[in-house]
Amino acid sequence: MMIVILLIGIMSAVAVPRFARRIELAELRTEKEFVNQIWEELELHAEEQFESTGTESWPENPLTVLGRTRNVIITYELGIPDEDN
């Protein structure tokens, strides 16, 4: 019985850190894919702006190219918004 418990302990000591590392790598991969998607859409937006206006420009809020926005405005006067503003 002690040998079984010892083997389970050794296996879990090896498996848990490897599993945690896999989760971390998956999160990093997802973040990189999201950043690459934003970059590609920004480049496409800039190209479309250049074709229509003659000036290459990006939107003020980069998430608008993905159809994702947040109605949050941070200014020096208001600071970071809370529940009241």
TrEMBL record:
Protein species of origin: marine metagenome
Q: Which Gene3D superfamilies match?
A: Glycoprotein, Type 4 Pilin
Q: What is this protein called?
A: Type II secretion system protein GspG C-terminal domain-containing protein
What InterPro entries does this protein map onto?
Pilin-like
